[in-house]
Amino acid sequence: MNVLILHGPNLNRMGKREPHIYGHMTLEEMNDRLVQLGAKWNMNVTCTQSNIEGELIHIIHEAEGRFDYIILNPGAYTHYSYALRDAIASVEVPVIEVHLSNVHARETFRHTSVTAPVCQGQIVGFGWKSYQLALTAIRGFTEEKTN
Ligand code: DQA
């Protein structure tokens, strides 16, 4: 099971960026935890981050045939990037959208996700554990397939 965790814009600023919203953990610390958890569950977890819309699109295209799942935090692109949405819709790889913060409890522009409708599902509001929950879901789907 190969899982790509893809972080969008400004997530490289985790730990420094608005810690009252996003917490104190750095992206590197979070990625380490997720890779370790994946290893425990027999998943090969690869983490990557980009601030550039086109690069995220390219990474999603390239994920086809290489990854079984993508866990994607599109950052602010969530709210307006039709290009990212089309990229997700264009690949066979299922995508789970995650957000650290509860976007529905924040500014109204964050209540809309243009990407979620083409994802398998969305997990929001649990800090870094939103990603952990996405890995848990993938683990569950895999177990269902093998049992
Ligand atoms: C975010 C929520 C977005 O609204 C915001 O633009 C981000 C982070 C989150 O993980 O909570 O960059 O995706």
Automatic annotation (TrEMBL):
It comes from the Bacteria. GO terms for biological process: amino acid biosynthetic process; aromatic amino acid family biosynthetic process; chorismate biosynthetic process; quinate catabolic process. Substrate binds at residues 73, 79, 86, 100-101, 110. Pathway: Metabolic intermediate biosynthesis; chorismate biosynthesis; chorismate from D-erythrose 4-phosphate and phosphoenolpyruvate: step 3/7. One of its GO terms (molecular function) is 3-dehydroquinate dehydratase activity. It is an enzyme of class 4 (lyase). The record marks 17 as: Transition state stabilizer. Keywords: Amino-acid biosynthesis, Aromatic amino acid biosynthesis, Lyase. It catalyses: 3-dehydroquinate = 3-dehydroshikimate + H2O. The active site is at 22 (proton acceptor), 99 (proton donor). Its EC number is 4.2.1.10. The keyword Lyase applies. Belongs to the type-II 3-dehydroquinase family. Catalyzes a trans-dehydration via an enolate intermediate. Homododecamer. This is 3-dehydroquinate dehydratase. It comes from Hazenella coriacea. The gene is aroQ.
